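Quarterly update from the structural biology core.
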Amino acid sequence: PAELRTHLARTLPAYMIPAHLILVAEFPLNTSGKIDRAALPEPDRIPAAAQHIEPTTGSETILVDLYAAVLNREQVSAADSFFDIGGSSLQVMRLVDLINDKLGVDLGVATIFLHPTPQRLAASVDAIRSGAAGAAPTGPLVELTAGVGELPVFLIHAVGGTVFAYAQLAQELAGTFKVYGLEAPALTEAVDPATSLADLVTDYTDRIRAVQPAGPYRLGGWSMGGVVAFEVARRLELTGAEVRLLALLDAPFALPDTVPPTEAQLAGMFVADAAHSLGWDAATLPDPASSTPAEQLTWLADQLRAGDSGGDSGDDKADAVAERLRRRFDVFRAHVRMLGGYQPTGPAVHAPTLIVSADASPNAPARTQWPHLLSGSVSTLRVDGDHYLFLRPPQVAELGRSILKWHGDSGQPT
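Predicted structure, tokenized:
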């Protein structure tokens, strides 16, 4: 398979290169005579060092160096996926900036999702630079898989507003689903963040219908994204549309209506979440009690730029990173505030629902609460670990298989 992957990378357009190559004697079939995707063997995730591929073009060489710089790694293979080797949403932000700076191509985040390796991304960049392909659109609805003809499924962002957490899950679902991630519009459009959950649900329902005018719809979301997916599903059903899949990924059922956090506390929460995603020591973070929001965001911007060796130390570049962080903080703050005191009420949702619940998550009690507002078939998948781990390797592979199996077992077309 390693030699075959190298051959494909040299002979096929980037968008046709599969995420995994597995050799099987025959395909397992379900009772309908179709390929039973859930019964297929799990891809072997060989450590990157065991399948190192050197870059062969100028663009590949630059991208390999940028990946290594942003991720603080000594060596990156041309076949390494940015997300599989630890890339986070903040590091994607830096990678996009550096690609624009070094290669003169303004990429959208969708391009990184669809072409996550230096090899594949270089082919896309070269096509854009030669005029053979346009830049990927940079809008709130991000294509996370490149398949054609699969069933559309929409995964809605968590409280931070980005959809990077779904990168690896999308690859596990590819082939059965065409996965879209719905980001907060204020991250990519010149609009203010929504001020209420109702407004957010209206906007997202309209955006989903613009891509898929008629049902059946398939929705999901992690954390806050699960809450929004539930409300969008109900909004769609109230208009007579069918929702055939609802995946609540460790979503809270209700949130206390407490005293709103201060601006400094919100900035501290935002910086702490960023540090968690990057694996930083929480003891090194600025103290929200003695730091203003601006000081905390400036500290984070400085750390991001100091953490890679591919950046320019100029003021313009520093200002660009700080501005991106300010925009993301504005979105985070708006979402935290709109969720305060959320209590799901109203008519039950009829969609078949899969509740994924992490045992060590503060949202674990929600696994017994959500079914009270779900009148269709409900399945619960309990996973080990905390609120974050099940979306990361190796657990994300099990999650993907479970979703595919649940989808097939519930009698829905695959």
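The radius of gyration is 21 Å.
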